[in-house]
Amino acid sequence: MRILFVCHAFHPSVGGIESSALLLIREFQALGHELRVITDTPLGESEELAAFPVLRRPSLTEQWRQATWAEVVYQHNPSLNYLLPLLLKRRGAISVHTWVSRTDGRRGLRDRLKLGWLARWPVIANSRAMARALPMPATVIENAWDDQVFHAEGAGGFEARSGAVFVGRLVSDKGAIIAVQAIASLHDAGHAIPLTIMGEGPERAALTAEAQRLGIAGLVRFVGRQAPEGVAGLLRAARYLLVPSLWEEPFGIVALEGIACGCLIVATDGGGLADAVGGAGLLVPRGDVDAMAAAITRLEADATLRSRLEAARTAHLAAHRPRVVAERHLAILAAGRLGRSVPRAASQVQ
Q1: Residue whose C-alpha is closest to residue 4's, from 80, 120, 81, 93
Q2: Do residues 273 and 283 make contact, with C-beta atoms less than 8 angstroms apart?
Q3: pLDDT at 331 over 80
Q4: Which CATH architecture does the domain made up of 158-318 adopt?
């Protein structure tokens, strides 16, 4: 198929939507499909991707030309700026990767317009939580992880690993301070577990000060933003990946990356993180420092629990491989047309 791939946020911007888009495009091309991308993201001083054409902020005339070229149009998260290609082609689908609402859960005018737009098309949700939050039927196709980068090859077992890792933007919603406080609680109980924090953001100074206040500055290491290969290397050396989000994550690809690298996951229970973690980790209430510390203590002491979580990895990762996820998207795209939706019963993932 000739696929016009519309993605408001795209390379060189970095985030879950952007990385999941690149994975889909990689697999679509590997399966023999031709891709062109429309995005609102400026290139800036970065190098353009060479594997497919990227049209940045195209005019209406250019959008019309691309719709004429395409056989199907796919929106990777709904974009009101690029309605024209789907309207002209009348064949395609839209996936939803973040909440269609404000941060407080209310829906403004743009949110209501997006929902009206979504109601006209086959909709893909990236988690069961996302599907439940939408007022129209949606097929759940959970995100993939980059299996070419994140894997456990060459990594040792539990005893060969040490410490915990946090990966993410250093903003309050991501809850890194909960991870720092949980490590302090463990330290006070006699368990010295080092924590590596990967990422940058406005909360870094506050996190450094909190580690000093709690007397664990020597246990907390900040390594800044890392390239994917660097993230994977640190994950392969760690026992635990902590995902202490205070925000309800729409999914949480980082959990899949940690599982693929052999980490045991301790994550909060909001939004789509339960789908991302599956049976390969433990979930704790959001904002509960004691629960996160207790989960790590359980995993340190209980080899049977660790074995159960490790045994769940294979099937969980198999369902989230990029090729599997891409093929499920393609099946929706091949059948998707204006006015056609899927029954909500089809939205459950096995």
Answers
A1: 93
A2: yes
A3: yes
A4: 3-Layer(aba) Sandwich (3.40)
